[in-house]
Amino acid sequence: MVTNISGVLKTYEVYRSEERPPQLKPVRTDELKDTVAISEKAMDYQSVRLALQSIPDIREDLVAAARKKYESNANAVSDSELIEKLIDKL
Predict the structure, then answer these.
(1) Cα–Cα distance, 59 to 65 (Å, whole number)
(2) Most buried of the four, 27, 30, 65, 78, by CB within 10 Å?
(3) 71 three-class SS
(4) Which residues contact 75 (CB under 8 A, 6 or more apart)?
């Protein structure tokens, strides 16, 4: 039970008179504009990614040279040589 009404009213007046933050003015939606900022690091990443896309996954010149070497049988190894090398590794 409240017995001191004048004390309660004084406290209420103190809280009422305290400085309140200013009210924000409403913002019109037609004033708002979306913006995008791309960092320099992101632009570097993008240019490297584009450069890598232009490089083929398969180097046809190296594949052709390896195929030619394989088909010419220049690196032929006999069965006995292969077995000897495998045994040496054990």
Answers:
(1) 10
(2) 65
(3) helix
(4) 69
AA identity, residue 31? E
| Interval 5-55: pLDDT, tens | 777 667 666 666 556 666 777 767 776 777 888 899 999 999 999 998 888
Read off the tokens for 56.
Answer: 């083929």
This prediction has a pTM of 0.32
Residues in the chain, how many? 90
CA 23 to the chain's CA centroid: 39
Question: How crowded is the C-beta side of 81, counted as CA atoms within 13 Å?
Answer: 4
CA separation for the pair 38, 44 (Å, rounded): 10
**Residue type for 49, please?**
R
Token pair of 18 as six digits: 């305290």
* Of 70, 53, 52, residue with least CA distance to 62: 70
What 8-state DSSP symbol labels residue 55? S
Report phi then psi at 54, rounded to 5. Answer: -80, -15
